[in-house]
Amino acid sequence: MAQVIDPALKGLLLSREFRAAITLWNRLEGRPRKADFDRSLRAEVRDPLWMLTRQWQFGEFKGEDAGSAVKARVQLNTSRIDRFAVKDENRDATGGEQFQPAVPYDQKLPLEIEVEREPILSIGPEPNTTALALRSQMGRHWLRMLKQAGLWSVKNAVLERFGFEDISAKNKEDLVGNELLELAHLQSDPVAWQSLRAVKGRLPDGRKLLLAINNGDFDAWVDSLGLSPVLKDLAKDFRSWFRRLFSQPENTELEDAWAPSYLEYQFAVSAPEEQSGEKRATLVAEQYYHGTLDWYAFDIDTQRQLQDISEGQFPENGFVKHAPVAFLPSQIEFNGMPNVRWWEFEDRRTDFGSIRATTSDVPLLLLAEFGLIYGNDWTVVPYNLEVGSLADIKGIIVSDVFGVETLIRPAGQGQQMDWQKWSMYNLASGDQVDNRLFLPPSVAKVYESSPIEKVILARDEVANLVWGVEETIPGIAGNGVNGFEAGKSLSSYFTANEPDREITRVPNDAKIQYLLGSTVPENWIPFIATHQPGSNRQIRLQRGSMPRLTDVIRNSVITPRGQILRVGLDQKQPYFVHEEEVSRSGVIVTRKYQRARGPNGEVFTWIGRRKETGRGEGASGLVFDQVVLLEQPETP
User: Taxonomically, which superkingdom (predicted)?
Assistant: First the structure.
């Protein structure tokens, strides 16, 4: 049976093209056939032409008329520092020689320790100048030495002659002046008083014993009692033990580098400049206070020559003229440095690309330009130097792969007005140029204790004074104690021991009262502005004192209890601080026990000082000649 097709549909089919199409949907799935994916993770590039094209695009085929450094020859002379001198502020004020005579310096002792160390057993009128715990430790060691030597029988004689003294056992009416103050300090500190009572009659006073050994009184005492001569040898061993335990200056006057007027260390060292030793280089450090002694703390002074102490055994001339040495230069590397090959991944610990610098951040822009563009243009030539050396580089010659030799000249040389004359590592100050390199004999790591003394120097604009606030003072027991609490305890002691007085008050109906003046805590020491000698405009700060309003010690004033502010107090001399040293933010000075190892592994323990920026101005509330309103009782 034939099928009939609509003529209209037949015409439509004949007029258009129709193609057969098959549409499928499928999911590609991996079919791993190996357990090792190392080759798949390599991301291998199998088109060498593509790789060569990318290298050409990045300019790696562009030739330059330059050769890579393959050899460097260095020749230099070195000298070792062998003299140490401290600044003399008294001579500096009169315009004379500014430094004390130089003493021999042995580089077995790190330079920080030579500069910072101070006497541990300071002899003063008050007991807080020496730690009671340290004196007891010394006494225990002496008794241990007696027992080991079989001389325990002389213990009672030693205790009778060198035992601890308890001033509270004396008649109070016989005490005057400093003795009354010493008793007040002792009895206002219960911990120290109990410690003293515990060791009295049981241990010798180590400070008293060592002082007698040093001045020869101990040997005379042994001879007077007819004791065993072995005690004299034990005394020498005891002194040697204490010198090993603490590093202290041999001559305090010639080795005390702390400048009280500047609140920092000031000193100088010198080294020979030639084989004969007649010409010497002097390195001066006048602003060292932060505890890290490096080359930038020194300025070379070509016009100054240190004067040697008359009786001193100085080391042999340490000048050495080295032969030229050849090295293989190596490329400099630093965090975030762009890699030479573009397809390597760079270290992201330092991202120079994320620097956001303004037009005024010139140093930051220079650093970024060096790191991104010129970082791979620098090479390093290693050279081992002995610690404590002053190196004078005579020449560096670099040879490249083409055999061309280039003399590397030091930066900073040239005409005075040359704008390219710039140098960072320069020992000379001002317009002078000194290209020598100084490697000071400093320690790598220092361990510090808690502050045994802390003083805050702050300005008080209302009272027009500078206050030296003893926040922490060296306690009698040996550790640092709170200065405010110690001052409050001392004031309470004086109030409790005040003699009874009858005060007759006249009844009146006054509503106001005249206040002669207020007071401040005992740990606040005033510094008053005074004129510099010979100047009507420049000022300096002179240590003053607040009166102690008590009848226990008549006509007494409040004095500092720490070593930082007691400069010249025992000799009844004034103490001045330069006005520019106490800025608006103030100054904080601390004293701490410090411990470090020397280059030979020897352990050193000493007391050093640090200075840092303060926390701002202070307000003491000190006022004079005030009229105040009296509080009237409320009427019922």
Answer: Bacteria
Q: Residue 632: count other Cβ atoms within 10 Å of its Cβ.
A: 8
> E-assigned strands of 162-263?
258-259
Q: Which residue(s) pair with 391 in the sheet?
A: 78, 437
The whole-angstrom separation of Cα 363 and Cα 226 is 76
* Mean pLDDT score of the chain: 83
Which of 16-20, 100-104, 278-282 has maximum average pLDDT? 100-104
Give tens-digit pLDDT for 44-62. 767 778 778 877 887 778 7
For residues 306, 310, 315, 316, the Cα torsion angle rounded to the nearest 10 degrees is 90
Question: Do the bridges between strand 264-272 and strand 258-259 make them parallel or antiparallel, or are there none, so unpaired?
Answer: antiparallel
Q: Report which secondary-structure segment, H or E, holds 612.
A: strand 603-613
DSSP labels for 399-433? EETT--EEEEPPTT-S-TT-TT---SS-SS-TT--
* DSSP letter assigned to residue 315: P
Q: Are 581 and 458 in contact (CB under 8 A)?
A: no
> Does the pTM exceed 0.90?
no
Q: What angle do CA 286, 289, 290 make, to 5 degrees?
A: 135
Phi, psi of 270 (to 5 degrees): -140, 155
3-state secondary structure 502-532: CCCCCCCCCCEEEEEECCCCCCEEEEEEEEC
DSSP, residue by residue, 193-217: HHHHHHHTTTSB-HHHHHHHHHHTH
Model confidence at 145: pLDDT above 90: yes
Contact 541, 466 (CB under 8 A): yes
Strands, DSSP E only, in 56-95? 69-80, 83-86
**Cross-strand partners of 408:** 396
pLDDT of residue 177: 67
Cα distance between residue 557 and residue 559, in whole Å: 6
Residue 322 has pLDDT above 50, yes or no: yes
- Name beta bridge partners: 525: 468
